[in-house]
Amino acid sequence: QVQLVESGGGLVQAGGSLRISCAVSGRTFSNYAMGWFRQAPGKEREFVAAIGWSGGKTVYADSVKGRFTISKDNAKNTAFLQMNSLEPEDTAVYYCAADPSGSPSYVPTRQRQYDYWGQGTQVTVSS
């Protein structure tokens, strides 16, 4: 059974930084493409960033490009989302997701492409 557990969320002032993590257990993490999604109050869940299983390819939503960085540490079975220059509009519950299929260049950006999901971590950015 694959399990994803997010951590590192919290309250930060606008302009600040935060790094959230996603620990994965249950299968060979190095074969997973990983993604981050977020859901703000009253809004649908949206794509934030994704990384291919080799770590060599990444994709970002336009709203976070240049501010957020996704990475994965296969030795630690953990994916990360480094968030800089945070804005109040970044306030949301952030979810990580894992997809064990695909080639090294496969970087899924749609929710339905992911097989496994974490329970989310709250990120709140104050103005």
Structure description:
It is a single chain. The chain is an all-beta fold. It has strands spanning 3-7, 10-13, 18-25, 33-39, 46-51, 58-60, 68-73, 78-83, 92-99, 116-117, 121-126. The strands form two sheets. Strands 2, 4, 5, 6, 9, 10 and 11 form a seven-stranded mixed β-sheet that branches. Strand 7 and strand 8 form a beta hairpin.
Task: Write a concise synopsis of the structure shown.
The protein is mainly beta and 127 residues long.
Keywords summarizing the entry:
about 130 residues; mainly beta; 7-stranded mixed beta sheet; 4-stranded antiparallel beta sheet; about 50% strand; globular
> How large is the share of residues in beta strands?
over 45%
Q: What summary fits the major beta sheet?
A: 7 strands, mixed
Please give the radius of gyration in angstroms.
Answer: 13 Å
In helices, the fraction of residues equals under 10%
Q: Given the C-alpha coordinates, what overall shape results?
A: globular
Note the gap between the termini.
Answer: 40 Å
| Low-pLDDT windows of residues | none
How many E strands?
A: 11
Number of helices: 0
Order of helices and strands: EEEEEEEEEEE
Oligomeric state of the chains present here: single chain
pLDDT averaged residue by residue: 94
